[in-house]
Specification:
The complex is a heterodimer. By secondary structure, chain A is mainly β. Chain A is about 0% helix and about 60% strand. Classes of the chains: A mainly beta, B mainly beta.
């Protein structure tokens, strides 16, 4: 059965710290891996990764995919209280299914 | 704001009843997908519609059904509601089925008592 596993499930750090969120997957017919940020209700798109080893970057956030290890990481540097959210990892398959992990709940202390 | 709207925002139903949730996709997007997110869980894929046809389905029973209209808006229908159907229901629209960015609506919170 296809699955996406995120770790840790929750994380509390101080403002200014750097965090690394992990995502591993077992999905047949892998097409892409996506990261979303969910603050209240609607997840907002962060990154889509299809190629191994190529880092995607947006401001203080960056992500990379390792297809050999079937995993991805999301890094957030110099965290701010506004980064507090649930970070969702999802994998889309070639038959147009998308499987989400349970998310990592990140809380940034001022 | 993504331009994807959902209605209603909250809904309370009784076990055994039927419910219809609605989603208006972002302008120009012809693909809509629906997700169920239980408390503390990640969203689970229910199904996807592309140009009014279902073109992908997750592990949900047939009592979960949907429609997509010519203007690409969509409905999710759930029959014979069960307590475990209580969840946040999210829809997302995208330019095409394989499109990377899925723009999510704010969701409908369904409570089944």
């Amino acid at each position: 059965e296809d699955k996406v596993v995120q770790s840790p499930l929750s994380l509390v750090v101080h403002e200014g710290d750097t965090v690394t969120l992990n995502c591993s997957y077992e999905v047949t017919n892998f097409r892409s891996l996506l990261w979303y940020k969910q603050e209240k209700k609607a997840p907002t798109f962060l990154f889509m990764l299809t190629s191994s080893g190529i880092e995607k970057k947006s401001g203080r956030l960056s992500s990379i995919l390792d297809k050999k290890e079937l995993s991805s990481i999301l890094n957030i540097t110099a965290t701010q209280t506004g980064d507090s959210a649930i970070y969702l990892c999802a994998v889309s398959s070639r038959d147009d299914k998308i499987i989400f992990g349970k998310g990592t709940r990140l809380h940034i202390l001022p | 704001e993504t331009g994807v709207t959902q209605s209603p925002t909250h809904l309370i139903k009784t076990r055994g009843q039927q419910v219809t949730l609605r989603c208006s996709s972002q302008s120009g997007h012809n693909t809509v997908s629906w997700y169920q997110q239980a408390l503390g869980q990640g969203p689970q894929f229910i199904f996807q519609y592309y140009r009014e046809e279902e073109n992908g389905r997750g592990n949900f029973p047939p009592r979960f059904s949907g429609l997509q209209f010519p203007n690409y808006s969509s409905e999710l229908n759930v029959n014979a509601l069960e307590l475990d159907d209580s969840a946040l229901y999210l829809c997302a629209s995208s330019l095409a089925p394989g499109s990377r960015a899925k723009y999510f609506g704010p969701g409908t919170r369904l409570t089944v008592t």
